Inverse folding.
DNA sequence: TCAAAAGTGTTACGGCTACACCCATGT
DNA sequence: ACATGGGTGTAGCCGTAACACTTTTGA
């Protein structure tokens, strides 16, 4: 076990990087900032910043999330640690170890400088690349993680407002997975899972202007899905 | 985006902690070291150490794995990043951010000072706690992750030697999950997954001294399991 | 009256569970 | 012979996929 001599190691900077995802107009979007300085000046990058001395990475991530989105209350938003990126050359200036997080937002207000935030903005996921540093990889890992967790957790409701229709919930799955799902079967599976969603009594909403008004639901107390809601089969899903 | 002023942040120590798991005599064991100094002098802890300036966390973890086990070749061993633990008070001496890894070993040679290693030794998983620092939590997270990955990946073969019987493979599942499985059904599911295991032609081995000799298998090229091999139902599995 | 979106019903298929049963080996 | 562990067969259950179909709204 190594000694804790303060000079035995080179100083590391520890940062957090955030892959903040939301759905806008039926398309997956990610929150990005434009870099003003070298390296990668002018490129887009994931928002992030240093972990402060008294903070955990989770605390720093939530603080950055509030700063970058300009939202007052980010306490209810889904935020989870992805993994840590620590290649020695990932930042050409110095040694930076970054703990990456994925955050999910229900709606998508354009973040115009809520606090001392940088000029963060929503960018469609498909047109986001290339990003600065190793952020392409982080973003891809976030997408993969979220897609996988939709299968066996109730994560999908984190993309939805407090009250939502089953059609909107289905759109979350279809957008993140890039597939289409059979509506009757989707409905049955969601309703068959106790605690996934709870119907709001009496409430209904018109969705597309036309058609039958849909019943409204709230997220239930469950966190896990049994049985899981599997993606349409594709062979050799990564381990 | 924060500035990269070298004085704008307090120095962080970045370490790796390893949850090295193996099966000995049908029981899950974890590699632990005994601490010689305060804090937690005399307590058991997960092996680990500092990330060196030119290393990624993954490189450091594999280096530590070789040092602590005393094995010459650790390149084939399964090693995966778990998550990063960064609570400000997790080490009372200074700010230490630790990237935790889980490692899986096929057999379990007792590691007697292979290199400059500390006196690491195998401890049955059930009697391992309490550990120093937040290592109880790290160890529990490693166990949970491995248990979950057995369901949908070919990870179980990482616990087995190059050639193994299906009974031994089943013991991996039963030991990690703490359950018993139906042998005929287990066999069918494993063999029905293309690329999970490949039979060694002609080979057979007696296992318990008695009984019919079992056919031998090798790990196949597949990494994912379709369909998954689910744990016997328990409600409310964590997300 | 038609299009659009929500919601219900039904049938066929496949995987899984829970067994019963046979095979080969050592004592 | 019998205990022990490996291996095969099978019947029923349950979830799912793939549809057809009905309901309610706006244009």
């Amino acid at each position: 076990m190594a000694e804790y001599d303060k000079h035995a190691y080179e100083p590391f900077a520890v940062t957090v990087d955030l892959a903040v995802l939301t759905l806008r107009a039926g398309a997956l979007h990610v929150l990005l900032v434009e870099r003003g300085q070298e390296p990668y000046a002018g490129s887009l990058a994931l928002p992030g910043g240093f972990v402060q001395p008294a903070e955990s990475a989770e605390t720093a991530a939530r603080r950055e999330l509030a700063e970058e989105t300009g939202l007052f209350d980010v306490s209810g938003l889904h935020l989870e640690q992805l993994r840590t990126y620590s290649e020695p050359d990932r930042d050409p200036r110095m040694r930076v170890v970054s703990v990456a997080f994925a955050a999910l937002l229900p709606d998508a207000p354009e973040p115009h400088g809520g606090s001392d935030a940088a000029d963060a903005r929503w960018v469609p996921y498909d047109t986001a690349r290339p990003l600065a540093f190793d952020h392409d990889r982080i973003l891809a890992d976030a997408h993969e993680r979220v897609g996988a967790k939709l299968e066996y957790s109730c994560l999908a409701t984190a993309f939805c407002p407090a009250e939502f229709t089953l059609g909107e919930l289905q759109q979350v799955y279809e957008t993140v997975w890039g597939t289409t799902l059979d509506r009757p079967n989707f409905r049955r599976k969601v309703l068959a899972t106790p605690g996934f969603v709870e119907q709001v009594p009496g409430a209904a909403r018109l969705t597309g202007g036309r058609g039958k008004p849909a019943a409204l639901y709230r997220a239930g107390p469950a966190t896990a899905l049994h049985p899981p809601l599997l993606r349409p089969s594709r062979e050799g899903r990564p381990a």
Summary: Chain B touches chain A through 55 residues (CB under 8 Å). The CA atoms of residues 34 and 178 of chain B lie 27 Å apart. The two ends of chain B are 32 Å apart (CA to CA).
